[in-house]
Amino acid sequence: MDRTVTFSGTYTGFLIHVAGHMAPWRLVLFPCVILLMLAYVVKLISRQRLKEYNQALMIGFNVERAKLMPHVESYADRVMARNLRAGAVAQIAQDRANGYTLVLATASYRLYVEPIARRLGFDAVIATDHLSQDLRYVRARIAGENCYDTGKLRMIKAWMASQAIDRAQAHIRAYSDHVSDAPMLEFADIPFASNPHQPLARLAAERGWTRVDWN
């Protein structure tokens, strides 16, 4: 989703949006988020722990879902209004018209991805889940894998199995902007490097994958 369907990443914006509406005092903690990102870059913490710590700082470790969701929905409206690539939206509409089942697979949290996907008309979401995904409180803990890199492909395969989709009988188009999605792109019948960063652009040229640049 991030930088494929959207112009920019959604996770940091989500944290700031919710903190600003639920507990503005937490915004003074944002420099700690930057420090945690640096800790991730130098491999002191994992990507999964980075997401958990950032959420605990900016939203809280344990937040009542009923109080959180109105701000999640308003954030989805904000993304729809300000952060969508028109070319991506047009491609989504074209793929739907061509009879494809639309699945949004992303490392972002299902918590806020599903409202965005619903607005875009996706049929299903494969995303990073919270440990308390279906409970009254949202905890700053990830359930299972972060939906990223090879983990994303494993989660896609698991979703297909849950839907009784036979890979041999499926025709898959996949879009991504980032080289971490190379396993997913290799799994697809028709992979697209969409607005790729340089490492993916190089890989796409080597593999003969189609490049698309959406406005």
Automatic annotation (TrEMBL):
Coiled coil: none annotated. Signal peptide: none annotated. It holds the Pfam family HAD. It comes from the Bacteria. SUPFAM superfamilies: HAD-like. The chain crosses the membrane at residues 23-42. Keywords: Membrane, Transmembrane, Transmembrane helix. This is HAD-IB family phosphatase. It comes from Sphingobium psychrophilum. The lineage of its organism: Bacteria, Pseudomonadati, Pseudomonadota, Alphaproteobacteria, Sphingomonadales.
